[in-house]
């Protein structure tokens, strides 16, 4: 692309409307931390690139049978309903769309956040209004942040519509004194995650063991109650990532199938 304009995320946030207008005539690349994060191009530029590079495909490149087959695959891969508009995005950029969808599952609909908050977060004392649907607006006020704990997390104390709340979030700028556990990937059928916080009270299988669906794998104790984790399907246990007595958080990866 010729005559490309590169602009930092900070500058783009300040003058987003102007740069959107500029993108109608020449590409605008938004950078952050020295990396290209977003490209804005006009519809004419998109069509030119599409003609040049046939890897960028539109709906018209497929038969009706092709579309339905791809729709089924995309639905299984992303775990959401694929209506035509969403499927078009998937067809053009399948890997990017899949990663974006995984981010939405993890962090929720971040598009409702004000742009500066999305890029830079909130400072203690900041208050924002977030409209999550028509007629439903949340008032969020950040009160304070705790010190970073040994796991590299901080507690954010805030008010949600005037009610006190607290969440635990990772401090990405800190080095944890204790290594963080891997989280189970919901999109990976090989992963089994902890259903709740607690401690491992029993491990009922061994690595390389063949298991059947419903077979107990391990037990977690929390609040003087014990819950079993059962095999979600038939298969072979590849790795057990916990030991009896270890503390877990919800969604920590505990067992991986082969």
Biggest sheet record: 4 strands, antiparallel
- Total beta strand runs: 15
Structural class computed from helices and strand pairing: alpha+beta
Q: Assign the CATH topology of the largest domain.
A: YefM-like fold
> How large a portion of the residues is in β-strands, by DSSP E?
25-35%
Q: Which whole number gives the mean pLDDT?
A: 81
Relative helix content: 25-40%
Named CATH architecture of the largest domain: 3-Layer(aba) Sandwich
The number of domains: 3
**Number of H- or I-type helical stretches:** 7
Terminal Cα span: 45 Å
Structural commentary:
The chain has about 260 residues and is of the alpha+beta class. It has 3 domains: about 5-105, YefM-like domain (YefM-like fold, 3-Layer(aba) Sandwich); about 120-170, Roll (pyruvate carboxylase f1077a mutant fold); about 190-255, RNA polymerase II/Efflux pump adaptor protein, barrel-sandwich hybrid domain (OB fold (Dihydrolipoamide Acetyltransferase, E2P)), CATH 2.40.50.100. About 25% of the residues lie in helices and about 35% in strands. The strands form 4 sheets. The chain has a 4-stranded antiparallel beta sheet with strand order 4-5-6-7, with no helix packed on it. Strand 11 and strand 12 (about 225-230) form a beta hairpin. The longest helix has 15 residues, at about 65-80. The chain is globular, with a radius of gyration of 23 Å. Mean pLDDT is about 80; it is low at about 55-60.
């Amino acid at each position: 692309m010729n005559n490309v304009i590169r602009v930092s995320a900070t500058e783009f946030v300040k003058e987003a409307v102007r740069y959107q207008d500029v993108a109608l005539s020449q590409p605008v690349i938004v950078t952050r931390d020295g990396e290209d994060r977003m490209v804005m191009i006009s519809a004419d530029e998109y069509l030119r690139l599409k003609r040049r590079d046939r890897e960028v495909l539109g709906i018209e490149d497929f038969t009706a049978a092709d579309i339905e087959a791809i729709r089924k695959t995309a639905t299984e891969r992303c775990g959401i309903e694929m209506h035509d508009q969403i499927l078009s995005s998937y067809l053009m950029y399948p890997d990017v769309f899949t990663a974006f969808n995984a981010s939405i599952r993890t962090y929720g609909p971040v598009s409702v956040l004000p742009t500066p908050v999305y890029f830079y977060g909130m400072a203690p004392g900041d208050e924002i209004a977030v409209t999550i649907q028509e007629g439903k607006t949340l008032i969020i006020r950040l009160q304070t942040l705790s010190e970073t704990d040994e796991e590299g997390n901080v507690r954010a104390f805030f008010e949600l519509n005037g009610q006190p709340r607290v969440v635990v979030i990772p401090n990405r700028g800190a080095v944890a004194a204790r290594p963080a556990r891997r989280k189970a990937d919901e999109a990976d059928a090989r992963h089994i995650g902890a259903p709740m916080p607690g401690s491992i009270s029993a491990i009922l299988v061994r690595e390389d063991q063949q298991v059947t669906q419903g077979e107990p794998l391990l037990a977690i104790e929390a609040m003087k109650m014990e819950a079993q984790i059962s095999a979600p399907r038939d298969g072979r246990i590849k790795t057990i990532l916990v030991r009896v007595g270890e503390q877990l958080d919800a969604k920590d990866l505990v067992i991986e199938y082969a």
